[in-house]
Amino acid sequence: MSSIAQLHTSTFSIQDLELKLKQVRLAHPEQSLPSPPSDSGSSSPQECQPEESYFLRSLKECLTIYEEPSRPRSESLLLLSDEEVIMLANNGNIATYALEKLFGMDQLERAVRIRRALISRGSSTGTLESSSIPFENYDYSRVLGACCENVVGYIPIPLGVAGPLTVDGKQYPIPMATAEALNAGGGVTTVLVGDGMTRGPAIDFPSAIRAGKAKAWIDSDEGHEILREAFESTSRFAKLKSLKTAIAGRTLYVRFATTTGDAMGMNMISKGTERALEAMQKRFPEMVVLALSGNYCTDKKPAAINWIEGRGKSVVAEAVVPGHVVKTVLKTTVKDLCNLNVKKNLMGSAMAGSIGGFNAHAANILTAIFLATGQDPAQNVESSMCMTLMEPTGPDGEDLLVSVTMPCIEVGTVGGGTVLAPQQGVLDMLGVRGAHPQQPGQNAQTLARIIASAVLAGELSLLSALAAGHLIKAHMAHNRSQANTPAASVPATPGAGLAYRV
Ligand code: ADP
Questions:
Q1: What b/e readout covers 127-165, taking b as 16+ CB neighbours within 10 angstroms?
Q2: What pLDDT, on the 0 to 100 scale, is given for residue 376?
Q3: Considering only CA atoms, which residue is closest to atom 7 of ligand 1?
Q4: What are residue 404's DSSP bridge partners?
Q5: Is 376 an annotated catalytic residue?
Q6: Which residues pair with residue 252 across a beta bridge?
Q7: Closest residue by Cα to residue 46 from 57, 30, 58
């Protein structure tokens, strides 16, 4: 047997030894330092010795214990210390990615701890093992095979809640939003104008003519029906809504759009699309499916097709803010807000050639809620597409009509990161956790409505702050006592309007 110092150092310093001991202590928080079992394998890691008597067995001894055929690997691993498992992994006997599978469900945290050590010691910085990234006391059984691979811990994110915001007559606690002004006008009303997750495979044909024939077939009632039947056979929640086809050269793209119940739906639609393409292959044996996702979907990339056709939940959220609230709470005017919205969110974004970016900061609010509720944060690319509109309303145009139009809110309340306990806590708080008991899909749709409403509050908040800031600047630039302080943004065109009082 070799002591750690002997094993690892031909030339070692006291610091090296201390570091090694620290690593071992970190690897065994529950048991000071373990002693190795006897060759018969009768001892367990629970039977530990004082620190001074810590030993690493040789690779050969460890391998003999690990590969003992009379017991399962998970039991053999219990007879090895963390450092010994690390040694086997470094020697190629244990795959780092398979630690959880080898250790079994009741040793998941140990698998994570060992992976941290392996990755840390193999990295140039070597910090992970002793870093402040937490890994203890987490329910890894929900993670395994569901939402993360090669787990080394978890990242806690501060969670704040504002509101409550009234959405469609119900009050919801909303993270980060200007709820007060919106509630004053009766709250936010939402309209769900579409619900369909999409997948767009790329399919090669020998020639453009053959691709064209396949396109015509898909567009025909017969082709549509065959594909629909195959697609829907894969899930009781997947109902095919549309098939949109496009050709480039000899490559055919088909955009499958489907409802997915309360799931965000990427897994579900991928399964359905695969089955539908199998049915199509029978009709067109020469076709070659290049990729189930041919980027005609379009998932997690900016694309006009999403902005135009919608993806996931398409929602409009609208509210009226009474004029006196605009003045007293938002500290601006309807006219200034509308002017700013046109110049910034509409014209400015048009000047920048934006696709779906006709808003101030929809992504801030949406991504915060995505993270808190276990959504796929990479889908914020298209989910944050938003057009913010503002116009005067009411008999004298004194009130503000404000809306956000968001065609691609991709959310679910089952599957993915929604299976994690803290994320489920947030979904519970919003009353939308899991599958809706009566109407599959309604929980996910409600979540999309809540997100759009929160985005609306965020838009109002930022634009008001900008408009109010502008007014304050105008105020400071001119004499406070001056009656009609001209606002800097009033056009010089004759008859274009009066200056504001600030
Ligand atoms: P995604 O398709 O978003 O990637 P998952 O495949 O992780 O999601 O989760 C969807 C799974 O949940 C499917 O197997 C589906 O059968 C099941 N499920 C149970 N209830 C529902 C529901 N109300 N809506 C959608 N899926 C549901």
A1: ebbeeeeebeebebebbbeebeeebbbbeeeeeeebbeb
A2: 97
A3: 415
A4: 317, 388
A5: yes
A6: 203, 247
A7: 30
Residues 6+ apart with CB under 8 A from 370: 376, 377, 379, 380, 383, 411
Q: What is the pLDDT of residues 87-106, one digit of tens each?
A: 999 999 999 999 999 999 99
Tell me what pLDDT residue 476 has: 72
Per-residue model confidence (pLDDT) at position 483: 52
When pLDDT is cut at 50, 70 and 90, the band that residue 253 belongs to is very high
State the distance from the centre of ligand 1 to the C-alpha of 414, rounded, in angstroms.
6
Query: Which bin fits 378, alpha (ψ -120 to 50), beta or left (φ > 0)?
Result: alpha
Establish whether 16 is a catalytic residue.
Answer: no
Distance from the Cα of residue 234 to its chain's centroid: 25
**Residue 406 main-chain phi, psi, to 5 deg:** -125, 100
What pLDDT is recorded for position 45?
A: 43
pLDDT in tens, 463-477: 999 999 866 776 676
Residue 60 has pLDDT above 50, yes or no: yes
pLDDT at 490: 66
Q: Which atom of ligand 1 is nearest to the CA of 146?
A: 7
- Protein residue with least CA distance to atom 13, ligand 1: 268
Task: Return the closest-CA partner of residue 448 out of 397, 363, 383, 354.
Answer: 383
d(CA 450, CA 18): 53
- Render pLDDT for 431-454 as a digit per residue (tens, 0 to 9): 999 999 999 999 999 999 999 999
Locate 417 and state its tokens.
């990161």
Residue nearest to atom 1 of ligand 1 (CA): 265
Q: Is 336 a catalytic residue?
A: no
Provide the pLDDT for residue 181. Answer: 86
Cα atoms in the 13 Å half-sphere on the side-chain side of 281: 11
Spot the catalytic one: 300, 335, 344, 470: 300
Q: Provide the sign of the torsion angle of the four alpha carbons 175, 181, 184, 187, taken in this order.
A: negative
In ligand 1, the atom with minimum distance to the C-alpha of 444 is: 24
Rg, the chain, Cα only? 30
Q: How far apart are CA 142 and CA 275, in angstroms?
A: 28
CA atoms within 13 Å, Cβ hemisphere of 187: 16
State whether the beta carbon of 223 lies less than 6 angstroms from ligand 1: no
Tell me how far apart the alpha carbons of residues 52 and 306 are, in angstroms, rounded to a whole number: 64
Per-residue pLDDT, averaged over 289-313, amounts to 98
Helix, strand or coil, per DSSP, at residue 403 = strand
Selecting among 376, 382, 399, 410, the annotated active-site residue is: 376
Judge whether residue 484 has pLDDT over 60.
no
* 114 contacts 28 by C-beta, under 8 angstroms: no
pLDDT in tens, 363-396: 999 999 999 999 999 999 999 999 999 999 999 9
Both tokens of 373, joined, read: 């509720």
Ligand 1 binding pocket includes 187 (Cβ within 6 Å): no
Whether 300 sits among the annotated catalytic residues: the reply is yes
Token pair in block for residue 398: 């004194």
Q: Is the pLDDT of residue 147 over 90?
A: no
